[in-house]
Amino acid sequence: MYFEFFILNFSLKVTCLEELPNELFLLIFSYLKSDMVIQTFLDLNQRFQSLILQYSRHLVLSADIDPNWIKKRMLSIENNIQTITLNIKLIRSVFSGKYSYPNLHSITLYSSIDWQVELDTENESPAVTIVSALNVLEKCSFEGIEQKFLELHRSDHRNPTIDSTQVRLL
């Protein structure tokens, strides 16, 4: 019944992309990479800003996203992010210490298509959770993790932070 109503109302002539309803944009966005949608529509206008902030709750960052874009735009969406999925090579950009992610509950890390791990951040800070996970992954000798881990964390230190390259290996 609702679907029929939507089709009847939608049959009106649309002369501008912005005349489409928000629900249709959200449906279109669901078929696209979330980081590309956010890059394209963030700060376009007030309506799209509102849609993007709603859409950014479950952020998936492609491995090929420009880290400079993260530095410029993450402040605009950090408060809305509840879950984030990212390639391990983006950890330093996304969790640089500049962003607090107050509503973040889950982080999913992956390395190409080799492995993926989901981390619960409700009881710990994102930085502590990620460092713990990287330590475990290193101990389990996941292929490629040792090199990535060593690139991220070079020397011995007791404060596990992602913005520093100094992390103590367990």
If you had to describe this structure to a student in words, what would you say it looks like?
This protein is of the alpha/beta class and 170 residues long. It has one domain (19-152). Helix content is 42%, strand content 12%. The chain contains 8 helices and 4 strands; from the N terminus they run ααααβαβαββαα. The chain has helices at 2-10, 22-29, 34-41, 46-55, 67-77, 91-94, 126-139, 145-152, and strands at residues 58-61, 83-87, 106-111, 115-120. It has a 4-stranded mixed beta sheet with strand order 1-2-3-4, covered by helices on one side. β1 (58-61), α5 and β2 form a beta-alpha-beta unit. α3 runs antiparallel to α4. The radius of gyration is 19 Å and the shape is elongated. The termini are far apart. Mean pLDDT is 75; it is low at 154-170.
